[in-house]
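Example record

The entry below shows one chain as it appears in the dataset: sequence first, then structure tokens.
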Amino acid sequence: MTRWHIHTGHVLDVMRDQGFVAGGKRYKIDGYVAVDWTNKIEVQVAQYLFGASTIGINLPQDWTENAVWDATTSQIVGGHDVTPIDYD
């Protein structure tokens, strides 16, 4: 298991068990699942069933210094989480 999975799993566990505050109100998620991001149909089914998903990406050093994100071999300096809400 990668560091990203461990961290993301922890954050999702907290959101399920303790919830998060938005607009002064506490919300809890019911649960979460993992999907095979290389399987387009599986990702689309998850989007359809759950309405949204979250994708974690590693951020290379070059992406923090340039306006254009391109292929690079620079070291990973952190992560970012994005939430797609649709697919085509």
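Notes for this example: The helical segments are 3-17, 40-50, 61-65. The mean pLDDT is 84.
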